[in-house]
Amino acid sequence: MTNIAHAERDHALLSASGARRWLHCTPSARLEATLPDTTSESAKRGTLAHEIGELKLQKAFSGIPTRKYNAALKKFKEHELYEPVIDQHTDMYLEYVQKIVHAFPSPPYVAIERRLDLTEYVPEGFGTGDCIVIGNRQLHIIDYKNGQGVPVPAENNPQMMLYALGALRAYRMLYDIETIHMAIVQPKVWDQPSEWSISVTDLLAWGESIKPIAQKAFKGEGEYVVGSHCGFCRARNTCRARVEQLMSVEDKAPMKPPLISWDEVGDVLRRAEGIVSWYNSLKEAALAEVLMGGSVPGWKAVEGRGSRRYTDLDAAFKHLLDNGIDEAVLFERKPLTPPTLEKVLGKKQYRELLEEPGHVIKLSGAPALAPADDPRPAYSDQIKPEDAFKDPVGS
Fold first, then answer.
1. Please, where are the H alpha helices in 138-294?
2. pLDDT of 382
3. What mean pLDDT value characterizes the chain?
4. How many CB atoms lie within 10 A of CB 37?
5. Counting beta carbons within 10 angstroms of the beta carbon of residue 93, is it exposed (0 to 12), middle (13 to 18) or buried (19 or more)?
6. Gap between the Cα atoms of 306 and 299, Å rounded
7. Torsion angle (degrees, nearest 10) of CA 352, 358, 359, 364
8. Region 307-319: what's the mean pLDDT?
């Protein structure tokens, strides 16, 4: 049984996708509402990928006619933002949903792009569940993400938990549900979806715990709190709390010893994290303001470094060849790297032709400093302090 519900791709003030932000920084939602909502090219491409993924699920579970499916897919592929890898990644999304559905002893209920009412927990709250599968006392919430910059794990993910609460409210009268399974399919980041499960009892308890926080956020009350949740906030560049934290690495009394301690190093690194990306992003915002006729005192827009290009590549190279220039000088031939080939071939073919036969091996990455709450395991190999910054080529 399948239910297709086309939900509007709009957002509530307290959106489920922004839950991590407004649960940590309660006044941020009202602040964001005062700023224009600019949509990046990557976000638009993500919307296109979602629509293609939805179409494929409709074909698999609602019996959309092949002719109608092919016509719609052809139209999507003609979109200026379409890229072949979207087809590969949405196939992975479809295959994962099919794997979940086929694991049930009898056909489960499947809902695609279902609008979910979250008002029991979040004022005026709603969201859209990409795919919901229910059967055998299990409820699956599956979300597709097209981004690659920030890995999004399913464990304790407030967006997914809010979707689960909305799905539970919508279907609990019809189905006996004991366990919620959440999965985030993010092909540009993980080969396998990130999965996490929670009991209905624990999920409902979490829902009750966030109610007062959501009320505060809806009213715009509370203190501005800076953290990793600021990443996609519309106010991230000019938020005073964030600017003051980024620009001030020391708010205590002057340090008396000539060298700071490692405890102080940790504090300084935490405070200064993101300052470079923030500075560059703020400069882009200031340039946009100046180009629109605004004023940023002390700054102006100037012409950047220019570039050169051929008026006619074929004619230019023919002229060089006619004048005795060797063709080998004009072209560069080099093998594609494994990551580039993976994009060209697709993950499945790349794995079958290169990784499984042993033509590609995965090398360990160099040690990198990361915050203590980073999900990656701590680096285990100990090295001597004097060897920490040696050039590996010469060792």
1. 158-171, 200-219, 240-247, 262-272, 275-291
2. 52
3. 87
4. 8
5. buried
6. 20
7. 110
8. 93
Strand blocks (E) in the chain: 2-4, 109-117, 126-135, 138-144, 179-185, 194-199
Quickly tell me which residue has 């499947």 as its tokens: 110
**Phi, psi at 179, each rounded to 5°:** -130, 140
Residue 392 confidence (pLDDT): 40
Q: Which amino acid is at 389?
A: F
pLDDT digits (tens, 9 = 90+) for 65-89: 999 999 999 999 999 999 988 999 9
**Is pLDDT of 151 > 80?**
yes
Q: If you compute the radius of gyration of the chain from its CA atoms, what whole number of angstroms results?
A: 26
Angle, CA of 82, 146 and 151, to the nearest 5° = 150
Asked if pLDDT for residue 152 goes beyond 70, the answer is yes
**Domain segments of the chain as ranges:** 2-219, 237-252+262-291, 313-355
3.90.320, 2.30.29, 2.60.40, 3.40.1000: CATH of 2-219: 3.90.320
Q: How far apart, in whole angstroms, are the C-alpha atoms of residue 10 and residue 5? A: 14
**One-letter identity of residue 374:** D
pLDDT digits (tens, 9 = 90+) for 203-222: 999 999 999 999 999 999 99
Write the pLDDT tens digit of every residue in 245-258.
777 755 554 556 66
Whole-model pTM: value is 0.72
Phi, psi of 129 (to 5 degrees): -85, 120
Query: Which residues fall within 8 angstroms of residue 49, CB to CB, at 6 or more apart?
Result: 86, 89, 90, 144, 146
Cα separation, 154 vs 365, whole angstroms: 24
Name the token pair of 25. Answer: 């920084």
Higher pLDDT, 236 or 104: 104
**What is the DSSP secondary-structure string of 6-38?**
---S---TT-STTHHHHHHSTTHHHHHHTS---
How far is residue 185 from each of residues 94, 141, 153, 310, measured CA to CA in Å? 10, 11, 9, 43
Distance separating alpha carbons of residues 47 and 63, to the nearest angstrom: 23
